[in-house]
Predict the structure.
Amino acid sequence: MKNLSSILSAVALGGALSASAANPGDEVIVIYNTHLPASKGVADYYAERRHVPPNQIFGFPLSTNEDMPRAEFRDDLQNPLAKRLKDLNLWEIGQTIAPRTTNHAGRVEWKPVRSSIRYAALCYGVPLRIAKDPDLQEPGMDKLRPELRRDEAAVDSELALLPLIEEHLPLAGPWRNPVYTTTNEAMLHPTNGVLLVTRLDGPSPAIARGLVDKALEAEADGLWGRAYFDLRNITDPAYKLGDTWIHNAAEICRHLGFEVVVDENPGTFPVAFPMSQIAVYMGWYDPHVSGPFSRPVVEFMPVPRRCAARTSIGLARSWPGAPPSRWGA
C-alpha cells in the first residue's frame, strides 16, 4: 500500500527553490549543520547564487543522523533560530487579534506582526525527522484518539510553525493549517502564521548543489520534459482527496503544455516503466525508493545543453518510515 508523504524528488525540490528566486535573496534564511562541513558548503553555494545576505546564513550544531530527539530540535534549532530572527530584527512578534470564526472564538495570538523573511532553506546535513518522545505528557492528551497521541514529526513541518512559537502549541496530535486552500501568494507569510520551508538535500552534497543550478537553468531557459502522476484510483474517503489533488495537478500540467503520463494502478510505476525527461513527478509512493527511481540512472530535467542527454541523479532522500506532517486541513 502506498502512503502520501512530503518527500519530493530532486526536480520538485529544484522547483520549490525556484519559486523563491522571483523574490529578493533577502527574503530567505539558509540553515546548515555546523557538524558537517559539506552542509556549510551547500549553504554557501546557494547563498552566493541567490544573493542571500551573509547575516541570514545560520549554522547550528545538530545531530549528523537523520533523526533528532525533540529536546535537541527545541534547544539546538527551534529556539536558537527564533532568537536569531528576533535579534537580527528579521521579524517582530507581537499581539494580534484572531477574529471569531464558525469553529473558533475570537482570541489574542502571538505571531510576527512584521517580517522581512518568508522562506527557510534547510541544507544537506540538517536532520529530517524529530523522534517520538516516549515520556511526552500534555494537558488534554488523554482525550485524543490513541493514534494521535504522538509527537514525532518532520523537521521541515515543525519549522513551518516557527512564527507561532510564542503560542506554545501542543505537540501531540495534528494542527490546523492556517493557510489551507490559500491561493493568494501574499498570504503565505510569517505574519499569517507560516514560514515557507524547503530543503536543499540529496544523496550527496554535489546533488544538493546541483538543485540550485537546475533551478537557475529552468528559470533562464524554461522547464520542459514530461510530467508523471502516480494515482491510486481509490474510493476510500480518507485517501480519495489525495488522489483528487494529484489528478488536478496532472490537468494543470496538461493545460500548460507538458506531455502528461498518469498511472492509476494501485502500485507505483513499475521498475521497467520507460520514465524519461522528467520535468514533474507527483504521486503516492512506497516507504522505500522503488520503481524507476531504483534504477542507477534517472533522467530529471532540465539537462544542460552542453551535456549528454542523460544525467545520473537520485531521489532527494529516501525517508523510510517518515512521519507525516502535523499540518491538517
